[in-house]
Amino acid sequence: MKRKDMLGLDGVSREEITSILDTALTMRQVVRSNNKKTSHLQGKSIVTLFYENSTRTRMSFELASKYMSAAAANISASASSVAKGETLIDTGVTLDQMGTDVIIIRHPMSGAPTLLAKHVRASVINAGDGMNEHPTQALLDMLTMREHLGGLEGAKIAICGDVMHSRVARSNIYGLTTMGANVVLCAPPTLIPTRIEELGCTVAPTIEDACEGADVVMGLRIQRERQQKGLFPSVAEYCDHWEITPERLALAKKNALVMHPGPMNRGVEIASSVADCGQSVITQQVESGVAVRMALLYMLTRRENG
Amino acid sequence: MEKLLIRGGRVIDPANGMDKIADVLIEDGKIAAIGEGLSADGAKVYDAAGKVVAPGFIDMHCHLRDPGQEYKEDIVSGTRAAAHGGFTAVCCMPNTKPTNDNAAVTRYIIEKAQTQGSGVRVYPVGAVSKGLAGVEMAEVGRMKEAGIIAISDDGQPVSNSNLFRLAMQYADHFGLFIMSHSEDKNLVGDGVMNEGFISTKLGLPGITRAAEEVMIARDILVAEAEGKRVHLCHVSTKGGVQLVREAKARGVRVTAETTPHYIGATDEWVMGYDSRCRVNPPLREEEDRLACIEGLCDGTIDVIATDHAPHHEDEKRCEFHIAASGISGFETAFCISNSMLVKTGKMTLSDLIERMSVRPAKLLGVQGGNLAVGNPADVVVLDPDKEIVVDASKFLSKGKNTPFDGKTYVGEIELTLVDGKTAYQGND
User: Fold this and answer.
1) pTM, to two decimals
2) Quick check: is B314 catalytic?
3) One domain, residues B421 and B398
4) B282 touches chain A (CB under 8 A)
C-alpha cells in the first residue's frame, strides 16, 4: 500500500479496495482460529484517539491490534475538550514523539482526521469524523456483502435511515459505487443531503421503491434527537413511512441481506423481526470489522515508499 | 510649506471624469493642481510614469479588533495594513471588546487612530444594540456626537425586526443609517459552509442561501415601509443580488456591498477542509460569484468593501468547525478586484476606482473619492499591470488568514497618501 493514511473511501480505487478486502479474508482466518496471535504488528504502536463515545469500533480496532501483537493504547477525550483543551495538532505531535505508528481517530467534526494527518508522521485511520466518512465500516460492509453476493458489480444496495448525518452512508456510497454497485438511498427529505445524487447514487421516492429488487437492505440509526430538532414529527410517523419492516423487506430479492452498522434502534429504523431474521448478517458485520481493521493496520504499517 | 509632485502618472478621477496622463501637485496636504508639465519647483518628486494615480480607496466595512482583541489586530497594525491596501479611510465595525456601543469606546478608537495610526482615516461604526445582543438600542445619539459614521451589529443580525425598524427610524434622526448583517440564525442552524454539493461531499453542515436572502428581503421591506436608508453588508448570493436589484428598481433606499472574496473564490476552495476559507457569509458557488460581479457591473451592488477580519494563526490552525470566521482582506482587495473585474474585461479601471473610492465616499458622506483641486490629498498610486504572488507572511496586518495566500493576481499598491502624508510607500 502506498498511502500513508486511510481518511476515507472518496478517491480510493477499485484495485485498492479489492486488495484490502482480499487481505481481510486472510485476516479473518486468524479471528476464527483458536490461536488469535500473529506477529504482523510486533514492535508497532497503535493508539486509538476517540473524541466520541464508541464501544464496538474502538474494541474492534483494539482487538485487531492485539491479535497482531501491536502495543495498543487508548485515549479518550471528551467532546468538550475539542474546543477548550489541547489542540488536535498538539495532541497528534505528542503521539508522534512517543513513537506511535498508527493513530486511529474518531471525532465529531468532519475533516478532523485530515487535519491530523497533515501534521503527523504516523499513519492516520479515520474511525468516523462528523458526517463525513467512516471508511472501515464501509469496508467491512463490502467484505460482508462480497462474501454473500459473490461480487458487488451491479448489485442494488438500499440504504435507509438518517443519511444526512451518516458517515457510514457517505463511505458506503463512495466505496460501493467505485465497486460498480448501485446505491439507492431512502429517508425523509429532511434527512437527505443536498445534491447527494452527484456522488453517484440515487434517491428513491419511497422505501418500497428502495427495497424493490434490492440485493442488500441496510438500515442506519435514527437518533431521537433528530426528531427533537424538527427533522421529522414523531417516531411513529417515521416508522409508518420509512421503517424497514418484513413487508418491505419482502420486496427485495429473495435472500437479500439485511445489514446495519449498529447500534440499532429497534422498532425505529428497523423492525426487530427484520434485524433478527435469517437474512440478517448484522452479527457477521462485526466479525468482518475486526478482519478489515487487521488488514488495514497490516497494510499501512508496511507501506511502500515509507 | 510641503510640496509633492506626482509626475507623469495616468490620473483616474472618476468623480471629475478625468482619465489622462498628468502631474498631480500636492501642497499642504491638499490637491494644488493637476495638469501636464507642472513645475517641480520646491517639490519632492514621485515618478509615477506607467502607474495610475487615483483617489484613495475607502473601505466601508472592516474589523480593527481594537479595543480588546489586539492579539488579532490593533488600530496601529490595522491602519498600516489598510494603507498597504491603498485605503485612505476605513469604517471599523463595533464588535470589539468592549463593544463600541457607547461614546467612550468611539472616542477611544478615534483618538488612537489619530495619534497612533498610519494616517488612514478611521470612521467607527457604532452598535445598533447594546452589546450586540439585539435587545436594547445603543446610545446612537451620543455615539454620533463622538464620531460614528453609521450603526451596525455586524457579526450578528438584528433578528428582532421591530428593533431593526425602530433603530432605522432613530438613526435617521441623527443622519445615520444601518449597515445590516443580513442573516437568519434559525436557517443557519449549525452550518459552517455554503450548502451545496461541496458541503455534502465534505460532510460539513451547510448554510442555505435562504439564510442570507430572507433577511435581505426583510431589511429591504422594512426600509421600504419606513422610507429610510439601509445598507446591506457583504452580499454573497445570486438571489441576494436580485433582491437588491428589484428593490432599487422600485425606488427603495437600499445600497449594498460585496467583498473581494465573494467575487474571487467559491466553496470549492473549502475542499481539504481549508479553515482559511471559513468566512461568514460562506464562500458560495460559481453562479453566485458571477452574480456578484454582474451586480457590481450594473450598479446593483454599489461598493466593494473588504470585511477585513484578521484572526490569530491559532484560531485557524484547528478543525474547520471551530475555526474563526473571517479573511484578512485589506492587502489583497485591489489585486483580487482588479484581476476579477478589470483584467477580465468586466469593467474599466475607472469603474473599479468608482466602486472602491467614489461611491463609498458618497454613501458615507465623507471627504475623499475626489481629486478636485482644494480637496485633501487622499491619493493612491498603483501599478494595475504588475503581477504579484500574494504572500500573507508579508502582510502588515497581524492577521495572515487568507485563502488567497500563494496565488497570483495583478495589481500592486505603490504609494498611499492621506492629507498628502505618506501612509504607505512600497520599496521601489
Assistant:
1) 0.95
2) no
3) yes
4) no
